Amino acid sequence: MPTIQFVSDLHRDFYPLGKNLAGLYKSYLNPKADFLAIAGDTSNCFDTCVKLLTELGKKYKAVYWVPGNHDLVIPRKNYEFIKNDSITNSMNYIFAIQEELPDNVHLLNGDVIQITEKTSIGGTIGYCDFEYAEKILKANQSDVWLHWQRWYDAVHIRLSRSDGEALWKMQLQKMQSIIEQKPTIMMTHFMPHYSLVHKKYASNILSSFFTFDGSNLLSDMHKNSGKYWVCGHTHDAFQKNINGIDIVCNPFGYPDERLIFGKPSDWTYSIE
Ligand SMILES: [Fe+2]
To answer: How far is the CA of 6 from the centre of ligand 1 (A)?
Structure first.
């Protein structure tokens, strides 16, 4: 039976070759399965992202990937940083990477692709619904927006040129459209349930920007005979069933985290 390996948060830039974790990194990305699905945060650099995905395309029969928030700050080819651009333009830019990738490496941007006769995968980056802080932390909305502006403007992209709510609506529509097409596997970088936020970050208002309440999406996917939802962002690995769907997060994470946690999980799944 064919198999698929789920990973995320490869953060290739943090693992220069020749350093002490390079061997572990390489072994993590050697095939344990026929197919590979990557749930975002591949690299902060255009060339590195292309190189890594091209290498992986040679190792696996096919690779499926969605971008993560790190991929959105990827420098343009001439290394002019995209930092001062809007989120929407950043997303459009990352999709240009696909033109440089081999035919068996597929960027999922609302698409559903057949992997085998009976198994399909759909995906998109996803986004946040901005409600975690209000509903779980009882924070007031103006505080949430203030933190969102400061986080994105300082670390990522210009809020003044972005419309967060419009972006969420667009991503929600994409996820709904994917699920209507009844994929076996769904993939987003952002976490599709508030309960997936690690307890270490549970009281942090910034957690609101990386998760959404996907309860209805999960239920709909279950009704449509879906099996797995692969996500990333958080750097702790977990497998958790919510509303009938097995949610899988299997990140590589940063070097200091690998030194603490050791070898990452070799989770693979049989597909029909
Ligand atoms: Fe990450």
So the answer is: 15
Q: How many angstroms separate the CA atoms of 117 and 228, rounded?
A: 17
Ranges under pLDDT 70 in the chain? 17-20, 73-91, 152-162
In the reported structure, the alpha carbon of residue 58 is separated from the centroid of ligand 1 by a whole-number distance in angstroms of 24
Round to whole Å and give the CA distance between 146 and 115.
42
Torsion sign (Cα): 98, 101, 103, 106? negative
Q: List the CATH number of the domain containing 123.
A: 3.60.21
Number of independent structural domains in the chain: 1
- CA 117 / ligand 1 centre spacing (Å): 32
Residue-wise pLDDT for 22-62, tens only, equals 777 777 888 999 999 999 999 888 788 888 999 999 999 99
Please tell me the distance from the alpha carbon of residue 34 to that of residue 99, in angstroms, as a whole number: 23
Distance between CA atoms of residues 100 and 78, nearest Å: 15
Phi, psi of 57 (to 5 degrees): -65, -30
Ligand 1 centroid distance, CA of 126 (Å): 14
Say how many Å lie between the CA of residue 41 and the centre of ligand 1. Answer: 5
pLDDT digits (tens, 9 = 90+) for 78-117: 445 555 556 666 667 777 888 889 999 999 999 999 999 9
Query: Could you tell me the distance, in angstroms and rounded to a whole number, from the CA of residue 215 to the centre of ligand 1?
Result: 23
d(CA 230, CA 268) in angstroms, rounded, equals 12
Rg (CA), the chain: 18
Find the domain containing 219 and state its range: 3-270
Rounded Cα distance between 197 and 59, Å, is 32
pTM above threshold 0.70: yes
Q: What is the pLDDT of residue 211?
A: 95
